[in-house]
Write a structure and sequence with these properties.
Distance between the termini: 47 Å
Strand order of the largest sheet: 1-4-5-3-2-6-7-8
Radius of gyration: 23 Å
Number of helices: 10
Shape: elongated
Helix content: 25-40%
Number of domains: 2
Amino acid sequence: MKIDLTDTTASKINKALVQGRRAVGTPAVGMVLTLVIVTDEENAYDALRAAGDASREHPSRTLVVIKRVSRSPRDRTSSRLDAEVRVGADAGTGETVILRLYGEVLNHAQSVVLPLLLPDAPVVAWWPVNAPTDPAKDPLGSLAQRRVTDTYAAEQPIQELTARAEAYTPGDTDLSWTRITPWRSMLAAALDQVACKVTGVEVEGEEFNPSCELLGMWLADRLDVPVKRSLSSGPGLTAVRLETDGGPIVLDRADGSLATLSMRGQPDRAVALKRRETSELIAEELRRLDPDDTYASALKYGVDKLGEGVEEKTAPNAKDGSGDTDGAEAKPAPAKKAAPAKKAAAK
């Protein structure tokens, strides 16, 4: 069921939600959180679709805040709030309110959103694109316990990572970090299987891919070893090589779907490591609402502390025998000084 409201108020929107629940026969509110999506008109559809898929696991009230900038000088001085209320089958397993803000009300979006939050339920704010420099100090971000950004959508992802580290507040997270959860789990499990000491790491992936940088920062932070960053044609993160005193451990994913785990003394194993959809990523983030200390530690390690040189690969690398087909043998990168000691395990 859809209810369109023009030049409305938060009070009228709440009444429309109650009316919609009664019309579809679900007067009770069975949602576990409020998800506030701050986006533009161009990206609203994809974000709303991802949130709808995630709501099957986390029934929620989804508030989509779209700030519309009027072209007419007359419209810029007048305030207006338009809303589209969706309940029942049109809203997945929760409720959806699409808010379009015009004029002066653009500067007071938190005043519109606050009366629509579910009482006594956690709030998660998500910026699919154009996230603020400091999400915790953003008027809408200050309403949320968790704040989700995506540095991959930024024009300069690596600089964006640095800004995220400088402005980090407990509760911040990023979908670029969520994308490497399967990689971190697989590498930690591989190190659990053998008794060895890691002496060096190489992370290979697309240029300007924040997930590759975050994985390198996490490994350097947890293992206290030099990390070398290599470039490939992708897609995304393609390989991680751990040099150990017991032989190399290689996790190679050339096609973005199926990876191969290679360890000395053991047969190669195929590992499902597909690139996940946004709906899966946001659903994972909604599973935990406490601060992610591991992400904070990796983020604050710093991109600038990774290997001083970056290798670009354009042919198979015969040095490690991993069968990578991304290009010619790389030129050696300058050696990196050891990072400050941090004696945490790789798990």
